[in-house]
Write a structure and sequence with these properties.
single chain; mainly beta; 18-stranded parallel sheet; globular
């Protein structure tokens, strides 16, 4: 195994500022600094990887601090092909261990990240762990004027200012904040997943605290296809276990969270547990000039400021709140307050939950 002793600050000054380690051990601090020019990074072909201002660990260990920063006027990152991965201002761990602090900061005029193909991954200002372990503090902050994150194809996954754990174990504090002027996150294709300022766990275990906040002037999160999932400032647990505290806050001028397709699921400032176990305290809060949460299709679910438990267990306390407005598909519609207004819609489906705790 290669062994890197980085006791001093390691600064990478290449144009795309990317670090990739395989079968390595890193001690110290890794920094990918801002790029001030206009740059485009592209990987085209099957099993392609496009990394920009990113850290990629495979079969490796990192003990220390890793920071990815983007300050370019425009940064374009695209991966095209089957099983492709596009990473922008992100950290990816595969069969690896990380202890310390992982920080991803996207701050610039415009950021565009796209992965196009079957089983693709598009990660922007995110942390992705596969069969890995993480201990410490994890923060994803997006502060660009405009940010677009797109995953197109079957089983596509688009992560923006989010943490995604698959078959992994993590302990510590997780903070995801969307502070862009305008942000668009989209996953299009059957079983596609779009995560924006969210925490997503699959077959994983997490102990600690999770804070997801969306403060963008305008933010749109979209999942289109059969069995799709759109998560905005939410926590989604599937076959997982979590102990600790969760706070989901959606407080932007304009918020839109859409899931379109049969058995689709749209979560806004919500916690969804399926075949999972959670112990702790949950706080969900939605506030904005307009907040729209929409699920369209048979068996579709639209959850706003809610806790939904399916074949799962939960212990502790839950507080759900959203600021005044109109609720569609609810027993009571407060017509006395027209603006600001929040809308929660499920069409052709069975479930529309707002400020609720639902146990199935």
């Amino acid at each position: 195994m290669k062994h890197f002793e980085l006791f001093l600050l390691a600064i990478i000054t290449s144009m795309l500022a990317t670090l990739a380690f395989a079968e390595s051990e890193i001690h110290g601090t890794l920094v990918n600094p801002a790029v001030k020019s206009n740059v485009v990074n592209a990987a085209i072909g099957n099993h392609a990887n496009a990394n920009m201002n990113a850290i990629h660990l495979k079969n490796s260990a990192l003990w220390g601090t890793a920071v990815n920063v983007s300050g370019a006027k425009f940064m374009g990152n695209i991966a095209v092909g089957n099983q492709t991965t596009a990473n922008q201002v992100s950290t990816r761990l595969k069969n690896s261990v990380a202890g310390g602090a992982l920080i991803n900061l996207g701050a610039g005029m415009a950021l565009a990240n796209a992965a196009v193909g079957e089983n693709v991954r598009a990660n922007q200002a995110s942390i992705n762990m596969e069969n890995s372990q993480g201990i410490g503090a994890f923060a994803n902050l997006l502060g660009a004027y405009a940010a677009v994150n797109l995953g197109v194809g079957r089983d596509a996954r688009a992560n923006q200012a989010s943490v995604n754990l698959e078959g992994s174990k993590a302990r510590g504090v997780f903070v995801n904040v969307m502070g862009a002027g305008a942000a668009v996150n989209a996953a299009i294709g059957d079983h596609a997943t779009a995560n924006q300022s969210s925490l997503n766990l699959r077959n994983s275990t997490l102990n600690g605290a999770a804070i997801n906040a969306g403060f963008a002037g305008a933010a749109a999160n979209l999942a289109v296809g059969r069995g799709t999932t759109a998560n905005m400032t939410s926590v989604d647990l599937n076959n997982s276990r979590m102990n600790g505290a969760i706070a989901n806050i959606a407080a932007s001028g304009v918020l839109a969270n859409l899931a379109v397709g049969n058995n689709s699921k749209a979560n806004m400032a919500s916690v969804s547990l399926e075949n999972s176990r959670y112990n702790g305290t949950i706080i969900n809060f939605v506030s904005g000039v307009t907040a729209t949460n929409l699920a369209v299709g048979n068996g579709a679910q639209a959850n706003m400021g809610s806790v939904v438990i399916r074949n799962a267990g939960a212990g502790g306390g839950a507080f759900n709140a959203s600021v005044s407005g109109i609720v569609i598909n609810s027993r009571k519609v407060p017509f006395m307050s027209w603006c600001p207004f929040n809308t929660n819609i499920a069409l052709g489906g069975k479930t529309s939950n707002k400020n609720s705790v639902v146990i199935k």
